[in-house]
Specification:
195 residues, 55% helix, alpha+beta, single chain, 9 helices
Length: 195
């Protein structure tokens, strides 16, 4: 038996995508739902005093190779996005809206795949709107909702709460009040969730 746990993610993080794909398998195999916690990775890194991999050229190059290696190991279809970094602020806000409207799972799957499987440029609003239309979402209304002060505040609160709990990067998992950071620590989080 495995209990649910929290998964802190940002669509702009390729490692969050890799963890997401593994989590969907875990959910299916164990008949559970992992609690997806949208955060803004840039704000979390800033609060933690950490530079993004994109800001450190040698780490950025390594990250591309490492993500491909991790994807191969876990049989995940993955394409490092040529438009990286993806500016995820509105997408993360939209994930919160999707959660409130009860279609978060499909929304999250679609956005992650668009970025890290299909290589779409979700920095381009026209492409984002087309993606939303394909989900039967009115893009103008949805993106306007993302600008609602309550939604903005909810994302900030999620990010601040993650930092207060000891989260400093994405993906991160919290189970039994323990933080596990990185897609390669998902197995540790699952083992902890079995306790």
């Amino acid at each position: 038996m495995i209990k649910s746990f929290e998964f802190y993610f940002d669509f702009g993080s390729p490692y969050s995508f890799l963890a997401h794909k593994q989590i969907r398998k875990i959910e299916k195999e164990n008949a559970i739902k992992i609690k997806y916690m949208p955060i803004l990775l840039g704000a979390l890194l800033k609060a933690s005093g950490i530079k993004s991999n994109a800001d450190i050229p040698i780490k950025g190059k390594y990250m591309i190779k490492d993500c491909k290696l991790c994807a191969e190991k876990n049989n995940i279809t993955f394409k490092f996005n040529n438009y990286f970094p993806i500016l995820s602020l509105n997408l993360m806000r939209c994930a919160l809206i999707a959660e409130k409207k009860d279609f978060a799972q499909n929304f999250i799957n679609t956005v992650f795949d668009a970025i890290w499987k299909d290589g779409l440029n979700l920095n381009d609003e026209a492409i984002v709107k087309k993606l939303f239309k394909n989900l039967d979402i009115n893009p103008e209304n949805f993106l306007t909702e993302a600008l609602n002060p309550k939604i903005k505040d909810d994302l900030k609160k999620n990010t601040d709460l993650a930092f207060e709990k000891g989260v400093f990067g994405a993906p991160s998992f919290i189970v039994n009040n323990k933080v596990f950071w990185g897609q390669d620590r998902l197995e540790f989080a699952v083992n902890e969730a079995k306790k």
